[in-house]
C-alpha cells in the first residue's frame, strides 16, 4: 500500500467536482486542509508529492502544486527541496461547536413533546459555587427549579437549574405548560450562547427514586451553561438522564469555509 493510500481514501479522491464553481486547486486544497486541521494528517506527516496528488485526483500537476502552495502559505505544511512537504500544524482537540438556533429549537421541541413534573420552584440564595458562576453577591438570590421529564409516563430526565436575571419567579402552572426558554424570552432574558459538558455519574438516592431505579445506577450527566448577549452566565442547568430511556445525539456538518 502506497503512502497516499494510507492517507486519503478512494472516496475522498473522487470528491473533486470539475463542474463546481470552486476551482479544482481550491477543492483539493480544502480537502487536504480539513485532513490536517482535524488531525487525520498529524504533525510530521510526509505529504504526497505533486505527482502523486495529480494521479490520485486526476488533476494536473499545476493544480496539485497550487493546492500545496496554499497549504504552505497558511503555515500548515513546510516544503523543503529534496525532502518533500511535511505537516507542521499541531492539532489540538477543541470543543465541538454547532449552530445555537437549531439547538434551542430542539430543546423547546422536546419540552413540548414530553411531560414534566415540577418538584420545586423557589427563589433562594444559591450555593457558593453557583453564586460564583452566576457572579452574584453573597446575599443575592436566584430562581431554583427542579423538574422530572417523562415520555409516555416513563421518567428520563432529572433537571436542576439556577437562573439569574428573571423579573419574577415563574409559577408551577406556567412551568407545566411552557418551555423555560419561552419563559425566559417573555421576561426579556435572551440566550445567545450555550456551553454543554457531558459526563457520567452514579444515581444518588433522590434521583434514583424519581426514576424508579437502584441508587448507583449509571446516568448520563449534562451541565448546560447559558449566556446572554453580554456573555454573562444567566442559567446553570444540571440534567441527569437515564440512558435506558434517553440518548443524546448530535448531527453536525462541516463548515464549507
From TrEMBL:
It comes from the Bacteria. InterPro entries: Bact_HTH_transcr_reg, Chorismate_lyase_/UTRA_dom_sf, Tscrpt_reg_HTH_GntR, UTRA, WH-like_DNA-bd_sf, WH_DNA-bd_sf. Signal peptide: none annotated. One of its GO terms (biological process) is negative regulation of DNA-templated transcription. Keywords: DNA-binding, Transcription, Transcription regulation. Residues 22-90 form the HTH gntR-type domain. GO terms for molecular function: DNA binding; DNA-binding transcription factor activity. This is GntR family transcriptional regulator. It comes from Parahaliea maris. The lineage of its organism: Bacteria, Pseudomonadati, Pseudomonadota, Gammaproteobacteria, Cellvibrionales.
